[in-house]
Structure formats: C-alpha cells, structure tokens
Design goal:
Elements lengths: L2 H7 L40 H13 L4 E5 L2 H9 L7 E5 L4 H11 L5 E5 L15 E7 L11 H10 L3 E5 L4 H4 L9 E5 L13 E5 L2 H14 L5 H11 L2 H20 L4 E5 L9 H7 L6 E6 L4 H8 L6 E2 L9 E3 L11 H6 L7 E4 L5 H12 L3
Parallel strand pairs: 2-3, 2-4, 4-5, 5-6, 10-11
Antiparallel strand pairs: 1-7, 6-7, 8-9, 9-12, 11-12
Helix pairs in contact: 2-8, 3-4
C-alpha cells in the first residue's frame, strides 16, 4: 500500500455497528462487562479506547512499524521513553534539539540519576567517542530544531546496534511522509502529533511507534500505569489530520524551498538554514534518507540583535508569531526567547542559535503572498 493510501485507509475500517466511515469519537470512561472479566476487549478508557486504537494502528502503518502508542503530548511520549531507563544510565542526545526535550532530560530526569550528554551528531564518523558503557539511549532529532542539521540515522544506528544501545528518533520535523526511521535501524520513532500529524493547530498529542513487541508491551504498560493517554477527541482530530498529511507536507516543502531560495539572497539576512541547499553540510544525507527537505526554514539577521529580530517578528501579517509548527498556517518564531528559552544561552550559542535567529514553519498558503509578507517585515530594518 502506497503512503497516500495508507494515510486514508491503513488501520481504519467503517464502524461495524453503524457503518460510519470516520472512526467515531468513543467519549466514554468505562465499558459494560457481561460478567467479571468478560467484555468486548475494552474495560476502562485509560487502558483501551477504540478511537485511540485506530489511530495507533494507522500511525504504525505510516512509520512501517507494528505497534503505535499514543500519549497526551509529545513530551508525555518522550517521558515514556525515558522511563525505560534506570538510575545510573546515560542518554546521548543531539546538541541541537527542542528546548522542552533538553529541559526534560536536565531538569527532571537528572534528579533521578540519569545523565544527559548533548553532542554534535552531524558527523557520524566522530560520534562513537561520546558513548560509554553507561549509555543506554541515543536521542536523535533530524532535521534538528531549530538549526536544521541532518543526522545520518542509518550510520548512528549501526554504531548503536554494535553496543546494544536503544535509538529513538524524534521524527516530528520530517513526519513519516518524508522519512521512516524504523527502516533505517531505529528502535523507536516519536512524534509530537500536535504538529504535522494533526496539521491544523487544534490539538495536543504525542505518539511512539516501534517494531518490537516486547518494547511495545513495555510502552503499553507505561501508558496505562502513568496515565498520560491521548483523549478520544484528540485522537479523532489527529486521525482526521493524517488523511491530508501527504498533501499538506508536499505543499509546505514546495513553499519552503522557494522561500529559502529567496531569503538566501536578501540583503538583511546573513545565513539561511535549509537542508535543501546543496552547500548544506547535511544535504547529501537528507537527500538519501528523506523524500524532500521539509517545511522548516531558519535564518539569521545580518545585524545580530534581538531588537531587530523583534521588529521583524512583530511586522508579519500572514506569518503568525506563535510557538509550534506543522500547521496549515505559516508561523514565525524566535527560538532563543520562545521554544528554546530553557536552554542556557552559552549552550544555544555553541550550536549557532543566536539572538537574531528566526524560525519559520512554512504553511500551505500561496507562496507569493508569504514572500511578500516576509519582504515587508524585513523592510522595517
């Protein structure tokens, strides 16, 4: 089954009781039993929900996995991954990553004796030096947030497998339409379903997909035991969003490529970060492991001042100043003060995240309108 067909049909069947084409929202907390322990496969909604199960099956198919596990948010999904670890274990993570991921590792799990190291992963040949006997999890973002570096998933996974280390890939920026990390050797794929999967900025959701049944069973136990489940309405909205995932991401990629090209020659901009450029150091890897280069673009202003960034951020009309990404509408953000504010400035600067860096989540609007909006905003400088 091809991807576009999977988005609409994989794991999804008309409701057997009514024939409803769209999976119903099973808004119930519990289920009637014929006798103690005798039921129709559902006991209590934290443990099982038909709407959630349908989405989990659909996501597993999209990522070429076998088991999907849905959570209340992307961070709840990440929390479940970290709960696989024990005191004394170490995580090696991409040094350019979402601020919330950095915060969860350093501010919450560190107090339980789980250490996080944040290292450059764009050169797989020099990666093994960062691993120790205590490394139990490698955390990959690719493309990274917000510098859009590319990590060679297959190469990192090969190194990890030789040491029996789990690999989790945060696939939020790419979506399964652009890359499927399980096919490249990853053990776990994670999504903030809030972003491209939902696609309409109307729900908060997280998901994990795996191929290994034993690993899936551990996640189902954590999901049920910790209770950070996705509600049926949120699952319904993500299911609905996925039906147009391929169409939305394709258009976002087209728009982002044109916008990145135009910004690259703008007199007010010093650097544009976009893996579709041939000179991007991760371009060849992105071309190998992705089906397109994504809908995210970041850039530095020539005058590296926060005040200038604020002027631009406050001057767009179509690009909405807001956190998040992956919706049909275009968003503009300032990572240093918004999505990555929890990372110390000295750590941000090490990866090139300056006070003038601006991140775009390019939507599906007419690209000429978006270009005009950006040009007008940059003209205030």
């Amino acid at each position: 089954m091809k991807f576009a067909t999977k988005t609409i049909h994989a794991g999804i069947h008309p409701d057997p009781s009514t024939g409803a084409v769209m999976t119903p929202i099973y808004q119930t907390s519990t289920y009637a039993q014929d006798a103690p322990g005798e039921h129709k496969g559902y006991e209590y909604a934290r443990t099982q929900n038909p709407t959630r199960l349908t989405l989990e099956d659909n996501l597993a198919a999209l990522e070429n996995g076998t088991h999907g596990i849905c959570f209340a948010s992307g961070m709840a999904a990440m929390d479940a991954v970290l709960k696989l670890l024990e005191t004394g274990d170490e995580i090696v993570a991409t040094n350019d990553l979402y601020g919330g991921s950095y915060r969860l590792i350093t501010k919450i799990y560190q107090q339980f004796g789980i250490k996080g190291s944040f290292v450059p992963m764009y050169d797989a040949n020099n990666f093994e030096q960062y691993l120790t006997d205590k490394t139990k999890l490698i955390w990959i973002e690719t493309p990274t947030n917000p510098m859009l570096n590319i990590v060679d998933i297959e190469a990192i996974c090969k190194i990890a497998k030789e040491r029996d280390i789990l690999i989790c890939v945060d696939n939020t920026f790419a979506s399964p339409y652009l890359q499927t990390p399980l096919d490249l050797g990853a053990d776990i794929v994670l999504h903030s379903g809030t972003k491209y999967l939902g696609g309409h900025s109307d729900t908060v959701h997280g998901a994990i997909v795996v191929k290994d049944k034993d690993l899936a069973d551990r996640f189902y136990f954590i999901q049920n035991g910790s209770g950070a489940i996705a509600g049926p309405m949120d699952c319904f909205l993500v299911l609905r969003g996925i039906k147009t995932l391929h169409l939305r991401v394709e258009r976002a990629c087209q728009n982002a490529a044109k916008i990145a090209s135009v910004l690259k020659g703008h007199s007010k901009i010093s650097n544009v970060y976009y893996p579709g450029f041939e000179e991007h150091r991760g371009h060849s890897i992105a071309k190998k492991q992705m089906r397109d280069f994504g809908g995210m673009v970041s850039f530095d202003l020539k005058n590296d001042e926060f005040e200038d960034a604020k002027k631009v951020l406050s001057s767009t009309e179509l690009f909405i100043l807001a956190e998040s990404l992956g919706g049909v509408e275009s968003l503009i953000g300032h990572p240093a003060s918004m999505t990555h504010a929890s990372i110390p400035k000295e750590e941000r600067l090490k990866v090139g995240l300056t006070d003038s860096l601006i991140r775009l989540s390019v939507g599906v609007e007419n690209v000429d309108d978006l270009l005009e909006d950006l040009d007008n905003a940059l003209s205030v400088l």
